[in-house]
Write a structure and sequence with these properties.
Mean pLDDT: 95
Shape: globular
Order of helices and strands: HEHHEEEEHHH
CATH class: Alpha Beta
CATH topology: Mannitol-specific EII, Chain A
Strand content: 15-25%
Number of helices: 6
Helix content: 40-55%
CATH superfamily: Mannitol-specific EII, Chain A
Low-confidence stretches: none
Length: 154
Amino acid sequence: MKDVDPIVRMVEAGGVYYNIAGESPAEIFSDAVHQLALPRGVDPLVLLQGLREREALMTTGIGNGIALPHPRVPLVASDADERIYVCFLDRAIDFAALDGVPIYVLFVILSARPQSHLKTLSSLSYLMQSEAFNSLLRNKPDTQELIRAIKKYL
């Protein structure tokens, strides 16, 4: 995979968060949304509702303790406002992921267009196939460590 720049830009814009708490996906989303530095014009309650509605359709858990939650409709208008928030949970929570592994990290995605959203999902899915990258995630890296790993493994 070659196009690391959009993913790097989105993670740098979103940031890395730690100790997101809750007993269920809905509670996890609530705690996360209240901590995230959202772009101008994004209503936290609308984002929270969008994350909960999407999760109710089908788990965003993709395996290995990783989830890619996102609202079904774009909440940002431009590429510059797109974000990936990397949220490490204080403890793993059951998201009913297909592999049965409890979720310990969320990559919350805010995309401006369906095309960029699909490209982001594709890039992240590719990245998550790397056992070395997944190993790094389990150590809850800071933003710079994460960016170096994305550049290395994507």
